[in-house]
Every structure is written in C-alpha cells, then in structure tokens.
Amino acid sequence: KMDDSNSRSGRLQFSFQPTENLDLWILAQHTKQTSLGNSANVRGYNVLPATTCNMVPAGAVPARTGPCQLVDHSAIPALGDPQVYTKYATSQLNLDDTVVKWNATLRTSFATITYLGGYDRLDWDSYNPGSTFPTPINVATPVANFATVFNQTEKPRTTNHELRFQSVDPDARFTWQFGAFYFKNDNDLDSFNQRP
Fold this sequence. Notes:
0% helix; two-stranded parallel sheet; mainly beta
C-alpha cells in the first residue's frame, strides 16, 4: 500500500531538585519511521519528429516551451486507475532520529545561572520516483521517456549550548542579564537522480 508508514516514537524525561537552589531536567526521545515512500504515477512522453519549424541552428538550445517543440499527445499513455497502478521503481523512506535535551538552573545570592543544552542525531534515507524528465526523446516512432528516481541521504548532527546569568530580583529597578550561545550542525549529504 503506497503512502503507508510505520512510525514509532518514545520519550523519557526526568525533573529533580537535588537541593533547594538547584533544578535539573533531562529529556531523551527516539523516533523511527519506515514507509513505502510517496506515491507517484509518472508517465513518459515523446516529442514529435523535427520539422522545418522546430529545426534549430547548430549550437542553439531549443526552448522547452517553444511553439515549434510539440508533444506527441497520441503517444502519451492513459493514466488509468489513479489509485491502483504499477510503479516503474520501488520507493522507501527510513528515518531514525535521536534527541537529547537538558537544562540546569542554579539560584545564588548574586545571580540565577541557567544552562541549556541539546543534541540531535538524524539519519534520513529516501528513495522515490520523481517527475524529472532528463530530455525529451525526438523520435519518429513512439518510445516513451522514463522518469528518474531521486535518492536522498542526509545525516545531520546538531549540538547547541546556552549559558545565561541574570539578576536575582526581577522586580528591582535595575535588572541585568548576559550569556553565551553555541550552535553547530554537521550534515553528510548524498543526494542524486538516477535512471531506474
């Protein structure tokens, strides 16, 4: 069954207070999704043989939407049943995501100190037929062009940290706050189109 998926996710979080002035919190979450990918009924098409009108000088590039580049509608297959059809290539999606977050708050006589952090590890792997047609086939006999398959693989790793100091009394005439934030994201990207 196309467009079907199997998703599972679990989360654990803990909040505790070791002392009266110290609060700690941590969260861990894992998500796993597998599916058959997106459904697409993609058909090929033909361009009519060259005529005097659509003959292009050497070195020139014909416009895809030019008035003389005609699509042979008689060679386009009927879509048939929009819900049941044979796909020319398999499709799939595999997603694996792990997230960890934490924070700590320490209250002192001179400042409230807060630290927040997090880490996200995502593995994304998809394989889906697309609707990209590399080039129209300019032939006298109907030979359908084939769509491509898009492979997308990404592995982003995200880390962030924040440290904040702020005044103790929020109702005081003068309040202050300062801190620092760090963010880093690394991603291994491997995506490409291929002919099935």
